[in-house]
Amino acid sequence: MHELSLHARVTLLAAVAVGLAVAFVSVAAYATVRQQMYRNLDDSLVLRASQAAKSGVLTRLDNLQGVAPEALGLSDIRLGVYTAEGQRIGAISSVYPPMEEPELAIAQSQEAGVYSLRTVGVRNGEHYRVVAVPAQFCPLLHGCDENGNETVPSALVVAQSLTPIDRTLHNLGIVLWAVGLLGVIGAALAGNAIAQSGLRPLARLTGEAERIARTEELKPIAVSGSDEISRLALAFNAMLAALARSQDRQRRLVGDAGHELRTPLTSIRTNLDLLAQADKKGGLRPDDRQQLLDDVRAQMDELTNLIGDLTELARDTPQVRNAELIELSNVVEDAVIKVRRRAQSLEWDVQLTPFPVWGDERLLGRAVTNLLDNAAKYSAPDAADRSTGEGEPAGRVSVHLLDGVLTVTDSGPGIAEADLPHVFERFYRSSEARSRPGSGLGLAIVKHAAEQHGGMIYARNAPTGGAQFTLWLPHAATQSR
């Protein structure tokens, strides 16, 4: 079956289903007709034999021996009398009906309403339905008196040939076989037509899928109707739309990545060319050489961070895999310690309360670190590692975690209203941010991590000044692992 086409399987299944139904109906009809015909025959034989035994016409010796059933046109019937002493009596020129133990028992018992009924002979050959009823036989040619003193206990035996019934059942079987065969053929033709009509939309959908695989054009398929094939086409269109969006994101990511990677690579190559040319002319001064090497290292660090961010975003998985139970306050605390080392001149206001979540500790740690790095970068006017010179902090960063809501507020200039809807887009950098280091992927990674953990992130300008980012994550008790 698995090697056949769907069209062939539908046709075959329709033929088999109808064939089984026809076979069941035919067997039931044949059995019912056969049983009814035998029942009618038995009732007729018993009734006629009982009436003949009561009338006494066939139980007189002269009538029984003188008139053969064939003379009355009853060639399929045999008549006889079986006495209680075991004597068999019938027409002289006729064959006696079967008279054996069952018929002898009826002759000897003489119980009212009792009779024997059986089939004698070979199936598909000469066989009879034999009935025996109690009777009083008159063995005298001149007849017996009305009181029945001269009669002897016996059984009137009537045998009816089953050939007519067998012939009728045989013809019925041929008709049922013919009708069943025609029904199966008709079902196969109907199944073939239904398969052609029903599978035509599926064939069209298959052709469209093959066209898309061949041309890579993710155009939606025209859908009409509301049946299962239409629902499949709608699901296929939804899949195409998701694939098109993913493809657009990949193309945009590759294009933006190529543009962003070109800048540090060009700077590194330029600095290395300067070093090579200077070495040919006798070399640079130690301070200039060290400054150039520091610039190369900074560009290498920027390139490394950019590649790491691109790798994280390129995964584009819908949810975190292999999640584990982690304490979010510990993740935030580790990120604060890490960023505080790089921004020692800032004042840090940290308030944390325990909050368990299911997730990826590495991804959440990277997201929180990006938030804190972004706040530290914009909190200081020039650099986060330089104070005002009077012992006062260069800026302030507030980090509050309460009931799964992490709020990070900086003391920078805030976010322009035109830039607020775009701060979480990949490679987006506002006009104020272009003069500062960074790839424009940090906040995109924060949004990516929040969505993977079933949370959300949004930005706004704090009432007291500066930008405020709010990250919300669901509690571990409300998540499935």
Automatic annotation (TrEMBL):
* Entries under InterPro entries matching the protein: HAMP_dom, HATPase_C_sf, HATPase_dom, His_kinase_dom, HisK_dim/P_dom, HisK_dim/P_sf, Sig_transdc_His_kin-like_C, TCS_sensor_his_kinase
User: SMART domains annotated for this entry?
Assistant: HAMP, HATPase_c, HisKA
Q: Which GO terms describe its molecular function?
A: phosphorelay sensor kinase activity
Coiled-coil features, chain-numbered ranges: none
The membrane spanning regions, by residue number, are 12-33, 174-195
Going by the UniProt record, its keywords in alphabetical order are: Kinase, Membrane, Phosphoprotein, Transferase, Transmembrane, Transmembrane helix, Two-component regulatory system
Its EC number(s)? 2.7.13.3
Is Membrane found in the keyword set?
Answer: yes
Q: Name one GO cellular component term.
A: plasma membrane
The Histidine kinase domain, residue ranges: 256-477
Lineage top rank: taxon = Bacteria
List, for all copies, the residue spans of the domain called HAMP.
196-248
Q: Where in the cell is it found?
A: Cell membrane
- Catalysed transformations (reactions): ATP + protein L-histidine = ADP + protein N-phospho-L-histidine
- What is the protein name given in its UniProt record? histidine kinase
